[in-house]
Amino acid sequence: MTDHRPSREVDVERVLAAYRDHINAGLASLCKFMGFEAVEWKAEGCKIWDTEGREYLDLLAGFGTLALGHRPPAVVAAVKEQLDRMPLASRVLFDETVADLAAELAEILPGEIAKMFFCHSGTEAVEGALKLARLYTGRRKIVAAEDGFHGKTLGSLSASGREVYKQPFAPMVPGFTHVPFGDADALAGAVDEETAAVILEPIQGEGGVIIPPDDYLPAAREVCDRTGALLILDEVQTGLGRTGSMFACTEAGVAPDIICLAKALGGGVMPLGAFAGTPKIWAVMEENPLLHSSTLGGNPLACAAGLATIREMKRLDLPLCARQLGEKALASLRDLQSAHPDVISEVRGRGLLLGVQFTHADIAGLVIGGLAQRRVIAAYTLNNPLVVRIEPPLVITEDELEQGLGALREAVEQAAELVSSLEE
Ligand code: PMP
Q1: Which residues have a Cβ under 8 Å from the Cβ of 110 and sit 6 or more positions away?
Q2: Structural domains of the chain, count
Q3: 234 in ligand 1 pocket by Cβ < 6 Å?
Q4: Atom in ligand 1 nearest the alpha carbon of residue 262
């Protein structure tokens, strides 16, 4: 068996202390509280090893980033090649890697979307999308969904729908209203001729893996078309195979005007995000091409990762893998819920974006702790602490998934026993 321990001494206490003293003591406590009190050392596929050589199974995939798993060889090779040649661009000459990524992404993007801007993160992609919508329409109002998650910079946060993250930073950017997700009538009632855009996730990820009714996105498309508002779909989490299609919006038969991507786009190797729109809309960005810019966004190193990622996703048909494995996992989660209706109130999801909703947030916390004890990495959804997400790399094998679900079963049984003993 391979020894995955570091070849040099790593002082775990020093690392934990530096997190506490120099990063965020609250975050350090939270990780410890969830049962993760080790220092990661290396990773491959769906596995992570800590400095003691202990192996973990990753059912979180860096909050959906590691669609291709940790260190996918094709992406690592592409990044190494770019690193040795030219990691960052001159920003005035043309770069082949950046051009190739844009052209290949344009081929797979939904509808007529063909022009894009590269950045590093989901929240930056959303910021760009919101700015573009205001620029194109000349309007200011944005309609978003309650419990939606779009990032934590001020514009994206204003679009997001969880007060606990917003209230301490009020006032938000003006012009945002929120409607219940999945309610087409509420949406139609909120959008008018002054609305620049409707921004939605096709499936709310951080909201607790919430799938809207089938006619919701088509209704959103219709109300936007009727009023002249743009439809922004935030596929930062759902995009690139996660839900069983390259983009979740195509499952609803809807193409947005602007799409936001990040997370999986960098192949789990580099941070990379993008917002993209139709050429008609993009024209307003071309009159003054420096209206929106980023010094390091869309650098060749990140774009090399993005290009290799798109090619690998197609080669391995990861959307299909996500769909097939997701169906099996969902069936298994449904069995688990039937066995424990007292602690699990619902299971839902599509592809490998799955959520298990517990009857109480403390039970969800206990289950995450139980998984940590079994060295399985999981977390709750950021806007809904009742829900534990099952969001593994899309390259997970059936055996690994079964192992993870087995650990979940044990953790749920353990939590259910504790709950019933407390009730006695
Ligand atoms: N949009 C969605 C749908 C997300 O799920 C997230 C992150 N969970 C973001 C935006 C923000 O992405 P980032 O953390 O990269 O800024």
Answers
A1: 247, 249, 250, 255, 256, 259
A2: 2
A3: yes
A4: 15
CATH number for the domain that contains residue 210: 3.40.640.10
Token readout for 392 is 């593994």
pLDDT in tens, 193-235: 999 999 999 999 999 999 999 999 999 999 999 999 999 999 9
Q: 65, 124, 150: which to mutate for ligand 1, most atoms within 8 A of CB? A: 150
Give a yes or no: residue 195 inside a domain: yes
Atom of ligand 1 nearest to the CA of 124: 16
Both 111 and 20 in a single domain?
Answer: no
pTM above 0.70, yes or no: yes
Q: Is the CB of 236 under 6 A from ligand 1?
A: yes
**Gap between the Cα atoms of 177 and 200, Å rounded:** 12
Q: In this structure, is residue 5 part of a structural domain? A: no
Question: What are 232's strand-pairing partners?
Answer: 199, 258
In a shared domain, residues 300 and 325: no
Using CA positions, which residue lies closest to atom 10 of ligand 1?
150
What is the token pair recorded at 177? 């209203």
Test site for ligand 1: of 124, 156, 235, 263, most ligand atoms within 8 A of the Cβ: 263
Q: Which domain holds residue 172?
A: 73-316
Same domain, 77 and 54: no
